[in-house]
Protein backbone atom coordinates (compact mmCIF):
# COMPACT_ATOMS: atom_id res chain seq x y z
CA UNK A 1 0.00 0.00 0.00
CA UNK A 2 1.35 3.43 -0.94
CA UNK A 3 1.19 6.53 1.21
CA UNK A 4 -2.44 7.52 1.93
CA UNK A 5 -3.65 10.70 0.23
CA UNK A 6 -6.11 13.02 1.93
CA UNK A 7 -8.80 14.85 -0.04
CA UNK A 8 -11.48 17.38 0.85
CA UNK A 9 -14.34 17.77 -1.62
CA UNK A 10 -17.04 20.43 -1.29
CA UNK A 11 -20.57 19.82 -2.56
CA UNK A 12 -20.25 16.02 -2.35
CA UNK A 13 -23.98 15.28 -1.93
CA UNK A 14 -24.64 14.81 -5.66
CA UNK A 15 -23.38 15.38 -9.19
CA UNK A 16 -19.66 15.77 -9.84
CA UNK A 17 -18.76 16.00 -6.13
CA UNK A 18 -20.49 12.69 -5.34
CA UNK A 19 -18.82 10.96 -8.30
CA UNK A 20 -15.41 12.38 -7.29
CA UNK A 21 -15.90 10.93 -3.82
CA UNK A 22 -16.98 7.57 -5.21
CA UNK A 23 -14.06 7.23 -7.65
CA UNK A 24 -11.46 8.38 -5.12
CA UNK A 25 -12.75 5.88 -2.56
CA UNK A 26 -12.10 2.99 -4.95
CA UNK A 27 -8.47 3.32 -3.83
CA UNK A 28 -7.61 1.89 -0.40
CA UNK A 29 -5.06 4.71 -0.05
CA UNK A 30 -7.63 7.52 -0.21
CA UNK A 31 -8.97 9.33 2.83
CA UNK A 32 -11.85 11.53 1.63
CA UNK A 33 -13.53 14.29 3.58
CA UNK A 34 -16.76 14.59 1.62
CA UNK A 35 -18.47 17.78 2.72
CA UNK A 36 -22.07 18.77 2.11
CA UNK A 37 -24.77 21.07 3.47
CA UNK A 38 -27.06 18.36 4.84
CA UNK A 39 -25.33 15.06 5.63
CA UNK A 40 -28.55 13.64 7.11
CA UNK A 41 -30.27 13.82 3.71
CA UNK A 42 -27.23 12.99 1.55
CA UNK A 43 -28.37 9.38 1.09
CA UNK A 44 -26.22 8.44 -1.95
CA UNK A 45 -23.14 9.89 -0.25
CA UNK A 46 -23.77 8.07 3.03
CA UNK A 47 -24.36 4.86 1.06
CA UNK A 48 -20.78 5.04 -0.25
CA UNK A 49 -19.68 4.17 3.27
CA UNK A 50 -21.20 0.66 2.84
CA UNK A 51 -20.55 0.22 -0.87
CA UNK A 52 -18.52 -2.79 -2.07
CA UNK A 53 -16.60 -0.45 -4.40
CA UNK A 54 -15.39 1.64 -1.45
CA UNK A 55 -11.90 0.65 -0.33
CA UNK A 56 -10.72 3.99 1.05
CA UNK A 57 -11.85 5.89 4.13
CA UNK A 58 -14.89 8.18 3.98
CA UNK A 59 -15.62 10.99 6.41
CA UNK A 60 -18.84 12.90 5.75
CA UNK A 61 -18.59 16.41 7.18
CA UNK A 62 -21.22 19.15 7.25
CA UNK A 63 -20.19 22.34 5.45
CA UNK A 64 -22.18 25.08 3.76
CA UNK A 65 -19.67 27.09 1.73
CA UNK A 66 -21.71 30.28 2.13
CA UNK A 67 -21.56 30.11 5.93
CA UNK A 68 -18.22 30.97 7.54
CA UNK A 69 -19.18 29.45 10.91
CA UNK A 70 -19.93 26.16 9.19
CA UNK A 71 -16.61 26.29 7.28
CA UNK A 72 -14.59 26.91 10.45
CA UNK A 73 -16.45 24.17 12.28
CA UNK A 74 -15.76 21.76 9.39
CA UNK A 75 -12.07 22.69 9.49
CA UNK A 76 -11.94 21.94 13.24
CA UNK A 77 -13.64 18.57 12.68
CA UNK A 78 -11.28 17.65 9.83
CA UNK A 79 -8.20 18.78 11.81
CA UNK A 80 -9.35 16.65 14.75
CA UNK A 81 -9.55 13.56 12.53
CA UNK A 82 -6.25 14.25 10.77
CA UNK A 83 -4.42 14.67 14.10
CA UNK A 84 -1.47 16.64 12.75
CA UNK A 85 -1.50 15.20 9.25
CA UNK A 86 -2.39 17.60 6.47
CA UNK A 87 -4.75 17.77 3.53
CA UNK A 88 -3.17 16.84 0.21
CA UNK A 89 -5.96 17.97 -2.11
CA UNK A 90 -8.77 20.51 -1.71
CA UNK A 91 -11.40 20.43 -4.48
CA UNK A 92 -13.72 23.43 -4.42
CA UNK A 93 -16.53 21.77 -6.35
CA UNK A 94 -19.72 23.10 -4.69
CA UNK A 95 -21.52 25.54 -6.94
CA UNK A 96 -24.87 26.86 -8.03
CA UNK A 97 -26.29 28.03 -11.34
CA UNK A 98 -29.42 30.16 -11.50
CA UNK A 99 -31.84 30.01 -14.41
CA UNK A 100 -30.24 31.06 -17.69
CA UNK A 101 -30.18 34.87 -17.68
CA UNK A 102 -29.08 37.80 -19.86
CA UNK A 103 -27.38 41.04 -18.88
CA UNK A 104 -30.41 43.14 -19.81
CA UNK A 105 -32.88 41.13 -17.75
CA UNK A 106 -30.93 39.56 -14.91
CA UNK A 107 -32.28 39.37 -11.39
CA UNK A 108 -29.78 40.99 -9.02
CA UNK A 109 -30.58 38.53 -6.22
CA UNK A 110 -29.64 35.64 -8.52
CA UNK A 111 -26.38 37.37 -9.37
CA UNK A 112 -25.53 37.98 -5.70
CA UNK A 113 -26.48 34.52 -4.46
CA UNK A 114 -24.51 32.90 -7.28
CA UNK A 115 -21.50 35.07 -6.50
CA UNK A 116 -21.78 34.17 -2.82
CA UNK A 117 -21.72 30.42 -3.46
CA UNK A 118 -19.30 30.32 -6.41
CA UNK A 119 -16.76 33.00 -5.40
CA UNK A 120 -17.09 33.99 -1.73
CA UNK A 121 -17.57 30.31 -0.79
CA UNK A 122 -14.31 29.04 -2.33
CA UNK A 123 -12.50 32.14 -1.02
CA UNK A 124 -13.59 31.37 2.55
CA UNK A 125 -12.90 27.66 2.19
CA UNK A 126 -9.38 28.28 0.87
CA UNK A 127 -8.59 30.88 3.53
CA UNK A 128 -9.79 28.57 6.30
CA UNK A 129 -8.21 25.33 5.06
CA UNK A 130 -4.81 26.66 3.94
CA UNK A 131 -3.18 25.80 7.30
CA UNK A 132 -4.22 22.14 6.83
CA UNK A 133 -3.10 22.13 3.18
CA UNK A 134 0.27 23.53 4.24
CA UNK A 135 0.72 20.39 6.33
CA UNK A 136 -0.13 18.10 3.40
CA UNK A 137 2.42 16.16 1.39
CA UNK A 138 0.97 17.18 -1.97
CA UNK A 139 -0.63 20.66 -1.48
CA UNK A 140 -3.03 21.12 -4.40
CA UNK A 141 -6.10 23.36 -4.60
CA UNK A 142 -8.42 22.58 -7.54
CA UNK A 143 -11.21 25.06 -8.17
CA UNK A 144 -14.00 23.76 -10.39
CA UNK A 145 -14.71 26.44 -12.98
CA UNK A 146 -16.50 26.34 -16.32
CA UNK A 147 -15.76 27.09 -19.96
CA UNK A 148 -18.66 29.56 -19.63
CA UNK A 149 -16.16 31.76 -17.76
CA UNK A 150 -13.80 31.78 -20.73
CA UNK A 151 -14.04 34.92 -22.83
CA UNK A 152 -11.62 33.25 -25.26
CA UNK A 153 -14.10 30.41 -25.80
CA UNK A 154 -16.82 33.00 -26.47
CA UNK A 155 -20.02 31.30 -25.36
CA UNK A 156 -22.02 34.40 -26.09
CA UNK A 157 -24.77 36.17 -24.22
CA UNK A 158 -26.24 33.30 -22.17
CA UNK A 159 -25.81 32.51 -18.47
CA UNK A 160 -24.64 35.97 -17.41
CA UNK A 161 -24.78 35.57 -13.61
CA UNK A 162 -23.17 32.13 -13.63
CA UNK A 163 -20.45 33.18 -16.10
CA UNK A 164 -19.60 36.29 -14.05
CA UNK A 165 -19.34 34.17 -10.91
CA UNK A 166 -16.99 31.61 -12.48
CA UNK A 167 -14.93 34.43 -13.99
CA UNK A 168 -14.63 35.75 -10.43
CA UNK A 169 -13.50 32.31 -9.27
CA UNK A 170 -10.87 32.33 -12.02
CA UNK A 171 -9.52 35.69 -10.86
CA UNK A 172 -9.56 34.52 -7.23
CA UNK A 173 -7.51 31.47 -8.26
CA UNK A 174 -5.09 33.64 -10.25
CA UNK A 175 -4.61 35.89 -7.21
CA UNK A 176 -3.87 32.93 -4.91
CA UNK A 177 -1.54 31.46 -7.55
CA UNK A 178 0.45 34.71 -7.46
CA UNK A 179 0.48 34.77 -3.65
CA UNK A 180 0.93 31.04 -2.95
CA UNK A 181 2.07 29.15 -6.07
CA UNK A 182 3.41 26.46 -3.71
CA UNK A 183 -0.21 25.40 -3.05
CA UNK A 184 -0.82 24.85 -6.80
CA UNK A 185 -4.15 26.66 -6.96
CA UNK A 186 -5.58 26.01 -10.43
CA UNK A 187 -8.88 25.80 -12.30
CA UNK A 188 -10.45 22.69 -13.73
CA UNK A 189 -13.28 22.70 -16.28
CA UNK A 190 -15.30 19.46 -16.03
CA UNK A 191 -16.87 19.83 -19.49
CA UNK A 192 -20.64 19.69 -19.97
CA UNK A 193 -21.76 16.95 -17.62
CA UNK A 194 -25.09 15.17 -17.04
CA UNK A 195 -25.92 16.29 -13.51
CA UNK A 196 -28.79 18.28 -12.00
CA UNK A 197 -26.90 21.40 -13.09
CA UNK A 198 -25.71 20.22 -16.49
CA UNK A 199 -29.06 18.67 -17.46
CA UNK A 200 -29.84 15.59 -19.53
CA UNK A 201 -28.65 17.11 -22.84
CA UNK A 202 -25.07 17.34 -21.56
CA UNK A 203 -22.48 15.40 -23.51
CA UNK A 204 -20.56 13.70 -20.71
CA UNK A 205 -21.53 11.18 -18.08
CA UNK A 206 -20.33 12.19 -14.62
CA UNK A 207 -18.00 9.19 -14.44
CA UNK A 208 -16.22 10.21 -17.69
CA UNK A 209 -15.63 13.79 -16.58
CA UNK A 210 -14.58 12.80 -13.07
CA UNK A 211 -12.09 10.15 -14.24
CA UNK A 212 -10.39 12.92 -16.22
CA UNK A 213 -10.60 15.47 -13.41
CA UNK A 214 -8.90 13.06 -10.99
CA UNK A 215 -6.02 12.44 -13.41
CA UNK A 216 -5.58 16.19 -13.94
CA UNK A 217 -5.70 17.00 -10.22
CA UNK A 218 -3.28 14.22 -9.29
CA UNK A 219 -0.77 15.20 -11.97
CA UNK A 220 -0.54 18.99 -11.64
CA UNK A 221 2.71 20.52 -10.45
CA UNK A 222 3.44 23.98 -9.09
CA UNK A 223 4.08 25.04 -12.71
CA UNK A 224 0.30 24.68 -13.21
CA UNK A 225 -0.53 27.24 -10.50
CA UNK A 226 -3.07 29.70 -11.96
CA UNK A 227 -3.72 27.55 -15.06
CA UNK A 228 -7.19 26.82 -16.46
CA UNK A 229 -7.26 23.16 -17.53
CA UNK A 230 -10.13 20.98 -18.73
CA UNK A 231 -10.90 17.42 -17.67
CA UNK A 232 -8.83 16.06 -20.58
CA UNK A 233 -5.76 18.04 -19.54
CA UNK A 234 -6.09 20.68 -22.31
CA UNK A 235 -5.61 24.37 -21.49
CA UNK A 236 -8.80 26.46 -21.59
CA UNK A 237 -8.39 30.02 -22.94
CA UNK A 238 -8.98 32.79 -20.38
N1 LIG B 1 -22.52 19.95 -14.81
C1 LIG B 1 -21.84 20.69 -15.67
O1 LIG B 1 -22.02 20.59 -16.91
C2 LIG B 1 -20.80 21.67 -15.18
C3 LIG B 1 -20.05 22.36 -16.17
C4 LIG B 1 -19.06 23.25 -15.75
C5 LIG B 1 -18.85 23.44 -14.40
N2 LIG B 1 -19.60 22.78 -13.47
C6 LIG B 1 -19.31 23.03 -12.06
O2 LIG B 1 -19.06 21.79 -11.42
C7 LIG B 1 -19.41 21.88 -10.03
C8 LIG B 1 -20.36 20.75 -9.66
O3 LIG B 1 -21.50 20.89 -10.48
P1 LIG B 1 -22.59 19.73 -10.66
O4 LIG B 1 -22.88 19.65 -12.10
O5 LIG B 1 -22.21 18.53 -9.90
O6 LIG B 1 -23.84 20.45 -9.96
P2 LIG B 1 -25.07 19.87 -9.10
O7 LIG B 1 -25.40 18.50 -9.58
O8 LIG B 1 -26.10 20.93 -9.14
O9 LIG B 1 -24.42 19.75 -7.63
C9 LIG B 1 -24.02 20.92 -6.99
C10 LIG B 1 -23.42 20.53 -5.65
O10 LIG B 1 -23.00 21.76 -4.99
C11 LIG B 1 -23.57 21.74 -3.69
N3 LIG B 1 -23.77 23.09 -3.17
C12 LIG B 1 -24.44 24.11 -3.71
N4 LIG B 1 -24.42 25.17 -2.88
C13 LIG B 1 -23.71 24.79 -1.81
C14 LIG B 1 -23.34 25.43 -0.60
N5 LIG B 1 -23.72 26.69 -0.32
N6 LIG B 1 -22.58 24.75 0.29
C15 LIG B 1 -22.19 23.47 0.04
N7 LIG B 1 -22.55 22.81 -1.07
C16 LIG B 1 -23.29 23.46 -1.97
C17 LIG B 1 -24.88 20.99 -3.84
O11 LIG B 1 -25.32 20.59 -2.57
P3 LIG B 1 -26.89 20.38 -2.18
O12 LIG B 1 -27.21 18.95 -2.57
O13 LIG B 1 -26.94 20.64 -0.72
O14 LIG B 1 -27.68 21.38 -2.97
C18 LIG B 1 -24.41 19.85 -4.73
O15 LIG B 1 -23.74 18.86 -3.99
C19 LIG B 1 -20.02 23.27 -9.85
O16 LIG B 1 -19.06 24.16 -9.35
C20 LIG B 1 -20.42 23.66 -11.26
O17 LIG B 1 -20.49 25.05 -11.43
C21 LIG B 1 -20.57 21.90 -13.83
Low-confidence stretches: none
Query: What hetero molecules are in the model?
Result: NADP nicotinamide-adenine-dinucleotide phosphate
Query: How large, in whole angstroms, is the Cα Rg?
Result: 17 Å
Query: What CATH architecture do you see?
Result: 3-Layer(aba) Sandwich
CATH class: Alpha Beta
Instruction: Describe the largest sheet.
Output: 7 strands, parallel
The gross shape turns out to be globular
Order of helices and strands: EHEHEHEHEHEHE
- Measured between the Cα atoms of the first and last residue, the distance is 40 Å
Q: Count the strands?
A: 7
> What oligomeric state do these chains adopt?
single chain
Offer a concise description of the structure:
By secondary structure, the chain is of the alpha/beta class.
Structural overview:
It contains six helices and seven strands, in the order βαβαβαβαβαβαβ. The protein has one domain (5-230): NAD(P)-binding Rossmann-like Domain (Rossmann fold), CATH 3.40.50.720. The radius of gyration is 17 Å and the shape is globular. The chain has a seven-stranded parallel beta sheet, sandwiched between helices. Helix 3 runs parallel beside helix 4 (108-134). It has 238 residues and is of the alpha/beta class. The structure holds NADP nicotinamide-adenine-dinucleotide phosphate. NADP nicotinamide-adenine-dinucleotide phosphate is lined by residues 10-11, 13-17, 36-38, 64-66, 93-97, 117, 121, 144, 146, 190, 192-193, 195-198, 202.
Secondary structure layout:
Elements: E1 5-9, H1 15-24, E2 30-36, H2 43-48, E3 57-62, H3 68-82, E4 89-92, H4 108-134, E5 140-144, H5 160-179, E6 185-189, H6 206-219, E7 228-230
Parallel strand pairs: 1-2, 1-4, 2-3, 4-5, 5-6, 6-7
Helix pairs in contact: 1-6, 3-4, 4-5
The protein binds NADP nicotinamide-adenine-dinucleotide phosphate.
NADP nicotinamide-adenine-dinucleotide phosphate binds next to α1 and α4.
Amino acid sequence: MSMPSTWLITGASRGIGLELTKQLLASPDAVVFATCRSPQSATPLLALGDSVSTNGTLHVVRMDVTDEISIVSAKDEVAGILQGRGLDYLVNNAGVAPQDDRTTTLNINDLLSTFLANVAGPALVMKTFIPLIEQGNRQVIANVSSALASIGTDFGREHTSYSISKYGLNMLTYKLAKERPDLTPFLVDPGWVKTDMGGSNAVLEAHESVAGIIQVVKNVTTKDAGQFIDYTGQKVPW
